[in-house]
Structure to design on (478 residues):
Protein backbone atom coordinates (compact mmCIF):
# COMPACT_ATOMS: atom_id res chain seq x y z
CA UNK A 1 0.00 0.00 0.00
CA UNK A 2 1.49 3.32 -1.06
CA UNK A 3 1.39 6.40 1.17
CA UNK A 4 0.33 8.49 -1.84
CA UNK A 5 -2.60 6.23 -2.80
CA UNK A 6 -6.36 6.41 -2.32
CA UNK A 7 -6.15 3.09 -0.48
CA UNK A 8 -3.94 4.61 2.22
CA UNK A 9 -6.13 7.74 2.39
CA UNK A 10 -8.98 5.42 3.45
CA UNK A 11 -6.86 3.03 5.53
CA UNK A 12 -5.17 5.62 7.77
CA UNK A 13 -8.28 7.43 9.14
CA UNK A 14 -10.00 4.11 9.74
CA UNK A 15 -7.09 2.67 11.75
CA UNK A 16 -6.61 6.00 13.55
CA UNK A 17 -10.27 6.09 14.67
CA UNK A 18 -10.26 2.47 15.88
CA UNK A 19 -6.92 2.89 17.63
CA UNK A 20 -7.96 5.85 19.77
CA UNK A 21 -11.45 4.41 20.34
CA UNK A 22 -9.74 1.84 22.56
CA UNK A 23 -8.27 4.63 24.69
CA UNK A 24 -4.91 4.79 26.40
CA UNK A 25 -5.95 2.38 29.15
CA UNK A 26 -6.26 -0.50 26.67
CA UNK A 27 -2.70 -0.53 25.42
CA UNK A 28 -2.68 -4.24 24.57
CA UNK A 29 -5.71 -3.87 22.30
CA UNK A 30 -4.04 -0.95 20.59
CA UNK A 31 -0.96 -3.09 19.98
CA UNK A 32 -3.07 -5.91 18.58
CA UNK A 33 -4.72 -3.44 16.22
CA UNK A 34 -1.32 -2.14 15.10
CA UNK A 35 -0.16 -5.69 14.31
CA UNK A 36 -3.33 -6.43 12.33
CA UNK A 37 -3.20 -3.10 10.51
CA UNK A 38 0.50 -3.54 9.73
CA UNK A 39 -0.04 -7.00 8.27
CA UNK A 40 -2.94 -5.69 6.16
CA UNK A 41 -0.78 -2.76 5.03
CA UNK A 42 2.11 -5.04 4.01
CA UNK A 43 -0.08 -7.84 2.64
CA UNK A 44 -1.85 -5.35 0.37
CA UNK A 45 1.24 -5.62 -1.87
CA UNK A 46 1.70 -9.40 -1.73
CA UNK A 47 0.27 -11.46 1.16
CA UNK A 48 2.68 -14.34 0.50
CA UNK A 49 5.52 -12.43 2.11
CA UNK A 50 3.71 -11.93 5.39
CA UNK A 51 5.16 -15.31 6.37
CA UNK A 52 8.68 -13.80 6.21
CA UNK A 53 7.83 -11.05 8.70
CA UNK A 54 6.09 -13.55 10.97
CA UNK A 55 9.08 -15.91 10.77
CA UNK A 56 11.62 -13.16 11.58
CA UNK A 57 9.41 -12.04 14.46
CA UNK A 58 9.16 -15.55 15.96
CA UNK A 59 12.88 -16.29 15.55
CA UNK A 60 14.14 -13.08 17.16
CA UNK A 61 11.50 -13.09 19.89
CA UNK A 62 12.53 -16.63 20.84
CA UNK A 63 16.25 -15.85 20.65
CA UNK A 64 15.73 -12.78 22.84
CA UNK A 65 14.05 -14.89 25.53
CA UNK A 66 16.80 -17.50 25.29
CA UNK A 67 19.50 -14.83 25.66
CA UNK A 68 17.80 -13.61 28.81
CA UNK A 69 18.03 -17.08 30.37
CA UNK A 70 21.66 -17.85 29.54
CA UNK A 71 24.84 -16.50 31.07
CA UNK A 72 27.32 -18.79 29.31
CA UNK A 73 29.25 -16.60 26.77
CA UNK A 74 29.53 -19.40 24.19
CA UNK A 75 25.81 -20.18 24.33
CA UNK A 76 24.93 -16.49 24.06
CA UNK A 77 27.24 -16.04 21.07
CA UNK A 78 25.70 -19.09 19.40
CA UNK A 79 22.23 -17.60 19.83
CA UNK A 80 23.37 -14.24 18.46
CA UNK A 81 24.90 -15.85 15.39
CA UNK A 82 21.73 -17.86 14.84
CA UNK A 83 19.80 -14.60 14.61
CA UNK A 84 22.40 -13.02 12.32
CA UNK A 85 22.55 -16.04 9.98
CA UNK A 86 18.77 -16.43 9.78
CA UNK A 87 18.06 -12.76 9.13
CA UNK A 88 20.95 -12.08 6.77
CA UNK A 89 20.41 -15.48 5.15
CA UNK A 90 16.85 -14.52 4.19
CA UNK A 91 18.02 -11.10 3.02
CA UNK A 92 20.89 -12.61 1.04
CA UNK A 93 18.74 -15.21 -0.67
CA UNK A 94 16.02 -12.85 -1.84
CA UNK A 95 18.27 -9.93 -2.67
CA UNK A 96 21.61 -11.36 -3.81
CA UNK A 97 21.16 -14.96 -4.97
CA UNK A 98 20.88 -14.21 -8.68
CA UNK A 99 23.58 -11.53 -8.45
CA UNK A 100 26.15 -13.98 -7.12
CA UNK A 101 25.08 -16.70 -9.56
CA UNK A 102 25.43 -14.31 -12.51
CA UNK A 103 28.87 -13.11 -11.43
CA UNK A 104 29.98 -16.67 -10.69
CA UNK A 105 29.01 -17.61 -14.25
CA UNK A 106 30.82 -14.62 -15.74
CA UNK A 107 33.98 -15.47 -13.80
CA UNK A 108 34.05 -19.00 -15.22
CA UNK A 109 33.30 -17.66 -18.71
CA UNK A 110 36.30 -15.34 -18.40
CA UNK A 111 38.44 -18.41 -17.62
CA UNK A 112 37.08 -20.14 -20.72
CA UNK A 113 34.67 -22.49 -18.99
CA UNK A 114 30.98 -22.24 -19.73
CA UNK A 115 28.53 -23.34 -17.05
CA UNK A 116 24.76 -23.29 -16.95
CA UNK A 117 23.72 -22.47 -13.37
CA UNK A 118 20.14 -22.49 -12.16
CA UNK A 119 18.74 -19.02 -11.58
CA UNK A 120 15.46 -18.39 -9.84
CA UNK A 121 12.68 -15.94 -10.57
CA UNK A 122 12.90 -14.33 -7.15
CA UNK A 123 10.61 -11.46 -6.19
CA UNK A 124 12.32 -9.12 -3.72
CA UNK A 125 9.97 -8.61 -0.74
CA UNK A 126 9.37 -4.92 -0.17
CA UNK A 127 11.12 -3.61 2.93
CA UNK A 128 13.10 -6.77 3.74
CA UNK A 129 16.34 -4.78 4.05
CA UNK A 130 14.69 -2.53 6.62
CA UNK A 131 12.83 -4.89 8.92
CA UNK A 132 15.67 -7.45 9.03
CA UNK A 133 18.02 -4.74 10.30
CA UNK A 134 15.40 -3.64 12.80
CA UNK A 135 14.96 -7.12 14.28
CA UNK A 136 18.75 -7.59 14.31
CA UNK A 137 19.11 -4.45 16.41
CA UNK A 138 16.95 -6.17 19.04
CA UNK A 139 18.95 -9.38 19.33
CA UNK A 140 22.29 -7.56 19.20
CA UNK A 141 21.25 -5.13 21.95
CA UNK A 142 19.88 -7.96 24.10
CA UNK A 143 23.13 -9.88 23.56
CA UNK A 144 25.13 -6.81 24.60
CA UNK A 145 22.81 -6.46 27.62
CA UNK A 146 21.87 -2.94 26.61
CA UNK A 147 18.24 -4.02 26.47
CA UNK A 148 16.30 -6.60 28.43
CA UNK A 149 14.41 -9.30 26.46
CA UNK A 150 10.70 -8.67 26.22
CA UNK A 151 8.11 -11.27 27.15
CA UNK A 152 5.33 -9.27 25.50
CA UNK A 153 5.02 -10.99 22.11
CA UNK A 154 2.33 -8.63 20.81
CA UNK A 155 4.45 -5.56 21.59
CA UNK A 156 7.45 -7.18 19.88
CA UNK A 157 5.39 -8.12 16.82
CA UNK A 158 4.11 -4.54 16.64
CA UNK A 159 7.69 -3.25 16.89
CA UNK A 160 8.84 -5.43 13.97
CA UNK A 161 5.86 -4.74 11.70
CA UNK A 162 4.88 -1.16 12.62
CA UNK A 163 3.32 -0.07 9.32
CA UNK A 164 4.42 3.60 9.09
CA UNK A 165 8.10 2.64 8.85
CA UNK A 166 7.87 -1.03 7.86
CA UNK A 167 8.91 -0.90 4.21
CA UNK A 168 11.35 2.04 4.00
CA UNK A 169 12.31 3.10 7.50
CA UNK A 170 13.45 4.87 9.51
CA UNK A 171 15.24 1.76 10.79
CA UNK A 172 14.40 2.03 14.46
CA UNK A 173 16.45 0.65 17.33
CA UNK A 174 14.65 -1.71 19.64
CA UNK A 175 15.90 0.32 22.61
CA UNK A 176 14.04 3.38 21.27
CA UNK A 177 10.83 2.06 19.72
CA UNK A 178 10.01 -1.16 21.58
CA UNK A 179 9.52 0.52 25.00
CA UNK A 180 6.96 2.84 23.38
CA UNK A 181 4.76 -0.19 22.67
CA UNK A 182 5.05 -1.22 26.32
CA UNK A 183 3.85 2.07 27.80
CA UNK A 184 0.52 3.85 27.85
CA UNK A 185 -0.17 6.26 24.97
CA UNK A 186 -2.47 9.25 25.26
CA UNK A 187 -4.01 11.22 22.42
CA UNK A 188 -2.46 14.66 22.20
CA UNK A 189 -4.05 17.12 19.82
CA UNK A 190 -0.91 19.20 19.20
CA UNK A 191 1.17 16.09 18.54
CA UNK A 192 -1.37 14.89 15.99
CA UNK A 193 -1.49 18.30 14.29
CA UNK A 194 2.30 18.26 14.12
CA UNK A 195 2.14 14.79 12.59
CA UNK A 196 -0.34 15.93 9.94
CA UNK A 197 1.86 18.91 9.14
CA UNK A 198 4.86 16.64 8.58
CA UNK A 199 2.75 14.27 6.46
CA UNK A 200 1.68 17.23 4.31
CA UNK A 201 5.27 18.30 3.73
CA UNK A 202 6.30 14.71 2.99
CA UNK A 203 3.54 14.38 0.38
CA UNK A 204 4.66 17.64 -1.22
CA UNK A 205 8.25 16.41 -1.43
CA UNK A 206 7.19 13.08 -2.90
CA UNK A 207 4.36 14.05 -5.27
CA UNK A 208 5.43 17.51 -6.41
CA UNK A 209 9.22 17.46 -6.19
CA UNK A 210 10.26 13.81 -6.58
CA UNK A 211 7.63 12.67 -9.08
CA UNK A 212 8.07 15.70 -11.34
CA UNK A 213 11.87 15.39 -11.23
CA UNK A 214 11.57 11.67 -11.97
CA UNK A 215 9.85 12.27 -15.31
CA UNK A 216 12.76 14.37 -16.62
CA UNK A 217 15.52 12.38 -14.89
CA UNK A 218 14.20 9.13 -16.36
CA UNK A 219 13.96 10.57 -19.87
CA UNK A 220 17.48 12.00 -19.74
CA UNK A 221 19.13 8.93 -18.22
CA UNK A 222 17.38 6.53 -20.59
CA UNK A 223 18.52 8.54 -23.65
CA UNK A 224 21.75 9.96 -22.30
CA UNK A 225 23.71 9.40 -25.53
CA UNK A 226 21.38 11.80 -27.34
CA UNK A 227 21.84 14.80 -25.04
CA UNK A 228 24.38 17.54 -24.46
CA UNK A 229 26.56 17.76 -21.37
CA UNK A 230 24.44 20.57 -19.95
CA UNK A 231 21.27 18.48 -20.30
CA UNK A 232 22.95 15.48 -18.70
CA UNK A 233 24.14 17.66 -15.84
CA UNK A 234 20.59 18.93 -15.37
CA UNK A 235 19.34 15.32 -15.44
CA UNK A 236 21.75 14.40 -12.64
CA UNK A 237 20.51 17.40 -10.63
CA UNK A 238 16.92 16.26 -11.18
CA UNK A 239 17.78 12.79 -9.92
CA UNK A 240 19.49 14.25 -6.85
CA UNK A 241 16.26 16.08 -5.98
CA UNK A 242 14.16 13.09 -6.98
CA UNK A 243 15.85 10.69 -4.58
CA UNK A 244 15.92 13.28 -1.78
CA UNK A 245 12.27 14.27 -2.23
CA UNK A 246 11.24 10.64 -2.61
CA UNK A 247 13.06 9.12 0.34
CA UNK A 248 12.94 12.01 2.80
CA UNK A 249 9.30 12.52 1.78
CA UNK A 250 8.58 8.90 2.70
CA UNK A 251 10.37 9.37 6.02
CA UNK A 252 8.36 12.52 6.77
CA UNK A 253 5.09 10.70 6.07
CA UNK A 254 6.20 7.73 8.18
CA UNK A 255 7.30 9.87 11.13
CA UNK A 256 4.18 12.04 10.92
CA UNK A 257 1.91 8.99 10.73
CA UNK A 258 3.60 7.40 13.75
CA UNK A 259 3.06 10.64 15.66
CA UNK A 260 -0.70 10.35 15.01
CA UNK A 261 -0.61 7.13 17.03
CA UNK A 262 1.47 8.59 19.85
CA UNK A 263 4.89 7.28 18.74
CA UNK A 264 8.14 9.14 18.17
CA UNK A 265 10.42 7.87 15.40
CA UNK A 266 13.96 9.08 14.87
CA UNK A 267 14.71 11.85 12.38
CA UNK A 268 15.98 10.29 9.15
CA UNK A 269 17.01 13.36 7.13
CA UNK A 270 18.31 16.74 8.28
CA UNK A 271 18.61 18.90 5.13
CA UNK A 272 21.64 16.93 3.85
CA UNK A 273 22.14 19.08 0.74
CA UNK A 274 23.18 21.98 2.98
CA UNK A 275 26.18 19.99 4.22
CA UNK A 276 29.64 21.57 4.09
CA UNK A 277 31.56 18.33 3.58
CA UNK A 278 30.80 14.70 2.85
CA UNK A 279 31.13 13.68 6.51
CA UNK A 280 28.38 16.12 7.44
CA UNK A 281 26.31 14.85 4.52
CA UNK A 282 26.41 11.31 5.90
CA UNK A 283 25.40 12.54 9.34
CA UNK A 284 22.34 14.09 7.73
CA UNK A 285 21.37 11.57 5.00
CA UNK A 286 19.47 8.36 5.90
CA UNK A 287 20.50 8.85 9.51
CA UNK A 288 18.90 5.64 10.74
CA UNK A 289 20.97 3.48 8.36
CA UNK A 290 24.21 5.45 8.82
CA UNK A 291 24.01 5.18 12.60
CA UNK A 292 23.03 1.49 12.35
CA UNK A 293 26.19 0.72 10.39
CA UNK A 294 28.21 2.90 12.76
CA UNK A 295 27.00 1.10 15.90
CA UNK A 296 26.79 -2.48 14.62
CA UNK A 297 29.58 -2.64 12.03
CA UNK A 298 32.02 0.29 12.21
CA UNK A 299 32.55 0.39 15.98
CA UNK A 300 32.84 -3.43 16.36
CA UNK A 301 35.53 -3.33 13.64
CA UNK A 302 37.46 -0.87 15.79
CA UNK A 303 35.93 2.41 14.66
CA UNK A 304 38.37 5.29 14.77
CA UNK A 305 40.64 3.45 17.21
CA UNK A 306 43.84 1.82 16.06
CA UNK A 307 46.30 2.78 13.34
CA UNK A 308 45.42 5.04 10.42
CA UNK A 309 45.45 2.00 8.16
CA UNK A 310 42.89 0.24 10.32
CA UNK A 311 40.69 3.33 10.49
CA UNK A 312 40.82 3.75 6.71
CA UNK A 313 39.98 0.07 6.30
CA UNK A 314 36.98 0.44 8.60
CA UNK A 315 35.70 3.47 6.68
CA UNK A 316 36.10 1.68 3.35
CA UNK A 317 34.30 -1.40 4.66
CA UNK A 318 31.39 0.60 6.01
CA UNK A 319 30.83 2.44 2.74
CA UNK A 320 31.15 -0.69 0.60
CA UNK A 321 28.73 -2.56 2.86
CA UNK A 322 26.35 0.40 2.72
CA UNK A 323 26.56 0.40 -1.07
CA UNK A 324 25.91 -3.33 -1.28
CA UNK A 325 22.99 -3.02 1.14
CA UNK A 326 21.27 -0.82 -1.44
CA UNK A 327 21.22 -3.42 -4.17
CA UNK A 328 22.73 -6.34 -6.05
CA UNK A 329 24.55 -4.31 -8.68
CA UNK A 330 28.16 -3.22 -9.09
CA UNK A 331 26.93 0.36 -9.47
CA UNK A 332 26.06 0.46 -5.76
CA UNK A 333 29.48 -0.81 -4.77
CA UNK A 334 31.12 1.87 -6.94
CA UNK A 335 28.78 4.46 -5.40
CA UNK A 336 29.84 3.32 -1.92
CA UNK A 337 33.51 3.28 -2.89
CA UNK A 338 33.28 6.78 -4.36
CA UNK A 339 31.75 8.12 -1.16
CA UNK A 340 34.53 6.41 0.78
CA UNK A 341 37.07 8.19 -1.46
CA UNK A 342 35.37 11.51 -0.62
CA UNK A 343 35.39 10.66 3.09
CA UNK A 344 38.92 9.28 3.55
CA UNK A 345 40.80 12.61 3.18
CA UNK A 346 38.66 14.08 5.96
CA UNK A 347 39.63 11.15 8.19
CA UNK A 348 43.33 11.55 7.39
CA UNK A 349 43.21 15.28 8.09
CA UNK A 350 40.98 14.75 11.17
CA UNK A 351 38.37 17.08 9.71
CA UNK A 352 35.45 14.64 9.69
CA UNK A 353 33.90 16.13 12.86
CA UNK A 354 34.43 19.73 11.87
CA UNK A 355 30.82 20.55 10.93
CA UNK A 356 28.43 19.21 13.54
CA UNK A 357 26.11 22.21 13.88
CA UNK A 358 23.51 23.45 11.41
CA UNK A 359 25.07 25.65 8.74
CA UNK A 360 24.68 29.42 9.35
CA UNK A 361 22.83 28.66 12.59
CA UNK A 362 20.67 31.62 13.61
CA UNK A 363 21.64 33.49 10.44
CA UNK A 364 19.45 34.42 7.48
CA UNK A 365 22.10 33.68 4.86
CA UNK A 366 25.35 31.67 4.67
CA UNK A 367 28.66 33.40 4.07
CA UNK A 368 30.72 32.94 0.91
CA UNK A 369 32.85 30.15 2.39
CA UNK A 370 29.77 28.20 3.44
CA UNK A 371 28.21 28.66 0.00
CA UNK A 372 31.36 27.27 -1.62
CA UNK A 373 31.48 24.33 0.79
CA UNK A 374 27.80 23.47 0.29
CA UNK A 375 28.04 23.84 -3.48
CA UNK A 376 31.13 21.66 -3.84
CA UNK A 377 29.73 18.97 -1.51
CA UNK A 378 26.47 18.93 -3.44
CA UNK A 379 28.31 18.51 -6.75
CA UNK A 380 30.30 15.58 -5.36
CA UNK A 381 27.10 13.86 -4.26
CA UNK A 382 25.51 14.51 -7.67
CA UNK A 383 28.44 12.75 -9.40
CA UNK A 384 28.06 9.79 -7.03
CA UNK A 385 24.28 9.69 -7.66
CA UNK A 386 24.96 9.03 -11.35
CA UNK A 387 26.36 5.60 -10.40
CA UNK A 388 23.42 5.02 -8.05
CA UNK A 389 20.92 5.76 -10.84
CA UNK A 390 22.63 4.15 -13.83
CA UNK A 391 21.81 0.58 -14.88
CA UNK A 392 25.50 -0.37 -15.09
CA UNK A 393 28.95 1.01 -14.33
CA UNK A 394 29.58 1.33 -18.08
CA UNK A 395 26.43 3.42 -18.48
CA UNK A 396 27.41 5.64 -15.54
CA UNK A 397 30.88 6.27 -16.99
CA UNK A 398 29.35 7.03 -20.39
CA UNK A 399 26.92 9.45 -18.75
CA UNK A 400 29.70 11.27 -16.87
CA UNK A 401 31.83 11.39 -20.02
CA UNK A 402 28.93 13.15 -21.71
CA UNK A 403 28.58 15.59 -18.80
CA UNK A 404 32.24 16.59 -18.80
CA UNK A 405 32.37 17.49 -22.46
CA UNK A 406 32.47 20.79 -24.31
CA UNK A 407 28.66 20.78 -24.55
CA UNK A 408 28.48 21.18 -20.75
CA UNK A 409 28.47 24.93 -21.36
CA UNK A 410 25.66 24.88 -23.95
CA UNK A 411 22.00 25.63 -23.30
CA UNK A 412 20.17 22.43 -22.17
CA UNK A 413 17.68 20.97 -24.65
CA UNK A 414 15.38 20.10 -21.73
CA UNK A 415 14.76 22.92 -19.28
CA UNK A 416 11.33 22.72 -17.62
CA UNK A 417 10.97 26.29 -16.35
CA UNK A 418 8.10 25.61 -13.97
CA UNK A 419 9.91 22.70 -12.31
CA UNK A 420 13.07 24.79 -11.91
CA UNK A 421 11.01 27.51 -10.21
CA UNK A 422 9.43 24.89 -7.92
CA UNK A 423 12.86 23.54 -7.01
CA UNK A 424 14.07 27.05 -6.23
CA UNK A 425 11.12 27.69 -3.90
CA UNK A 426 11.55 24.25 -2.35
CA UNK A 427 15.21 24.95 -1.55
CA UNK A 428 14.26 28.29 0.02
CA UNK A 429 11.65 26.68 2.27
CA UNK A 430 14.09 23.92 3.26
CA UNK A 431 16.75 26.53 4.00
CA UNK A 432 14.45 28.59 6.19
CA UNK A 433 13.38 25.49 8.11
CA UNK A 434 16.77 23.77 8.29
CA UNK A 435 16.94 23.98 12.10
CA UNK A 436 13.70 22.04 12.59
CA UNK A 437 13.00 18.32 12.38
CA UNK A 438 11.33 19.03 9.03
CA UNK A 439 11.18 22.18 6.94
CA UNK A 440 7.79 23.60 7.92
CA UNK A 441 7.82 22.52 11.58
CA UNK A 442 8.18 26.08 12.92
CA UNK A 443 8.31 28.09 9.71
CA UNK A 444 4.98 29.86 9.99
CA UNK A 445 4.33 29.85 13.73
CA UNK A 446 4.80 33.61 13.93
CA UNK A 447 1.91 34.12 11.50
CA UNK A 448 -1.80 34.33 12.49
CA UNK A 449 -3.69 31.03 12.54
CA UNK A 450 -5.81 31.95 9.51
CA UNK A 451 -2.71 32.65 7.42
CA UNK A 452 -1.03 29.42 8.55
CA UNK A 453 -4.04 27.37 7.53
CA UNK A 454 -4.16 29.28 4.25
CA UNK A 455 -0.56 28.25 3.55
CA UNK A 456 -1.38 24.63 4.34
CA UNK A 457 -4.25 24.76 1.85
CA UNK A 458 -1.90 26.26 -0.74
CA UNK A 459 0.51 23.34 -0.29
CA UNK A 460 -2.39 20.89 -0.59
CA UNK A 461 -3.64 22.59 -3.77
CA UNK A 462 -0.15 22.53 -5.29
CA UNK A 463 0.00 18.78 -4.54
CA UNK A 464 -3.31 18.18 -6.33
CA UNK A 465 -2.67 20.52 -9.25
CA UNK A 466 1.03 20.04 -9.95
CA UNK A 467 1.81 16.55 -8.70
CA UNK A 468 3.85 14.55 -11.19
CA UNK A 469 2.93 11.20 -12.69
CA UNK A 470 2.73 8.69 -9.84
CA UNK A 471 6.04 6.93 -9.24
CA UNK A 472 6.77 4.10 -6.82
CA UNK A 473 8.97 5.08 -3.88
CA UNK A 474 12.60 4.50 -4.92
CA UNK A 475 13.61 2.76 -1.71
CA UNK A 476 10.94 0.08 -2.12
CA UNK A 477 13.46 -1.71 -4.35
CA UNK A 478 15.95 -1.95 -1.49
Amino acid sequence: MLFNSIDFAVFLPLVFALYWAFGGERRQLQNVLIVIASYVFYGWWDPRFLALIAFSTLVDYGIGLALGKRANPKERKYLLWTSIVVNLGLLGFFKYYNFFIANFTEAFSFLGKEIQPNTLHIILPVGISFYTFQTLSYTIDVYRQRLGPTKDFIAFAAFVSFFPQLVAGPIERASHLLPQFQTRREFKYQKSVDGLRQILWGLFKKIVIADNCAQFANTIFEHHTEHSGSTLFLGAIFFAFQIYGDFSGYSDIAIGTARLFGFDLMQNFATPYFSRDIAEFWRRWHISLSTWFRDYVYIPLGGSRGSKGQVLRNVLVIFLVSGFWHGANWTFLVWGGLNAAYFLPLILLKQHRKHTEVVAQGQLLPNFRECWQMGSTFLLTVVAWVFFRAASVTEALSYLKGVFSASLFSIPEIRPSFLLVLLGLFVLVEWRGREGRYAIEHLWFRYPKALRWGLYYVIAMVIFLYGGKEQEFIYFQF
Notes: Residues 447 and 453 are 10 Å apart (CA to CA). Residues 190-276+355-477 form one domain. DSSP finds 17 helices and no strands in the chain. The chain has two domains: 6-187, 190-276+355-477.
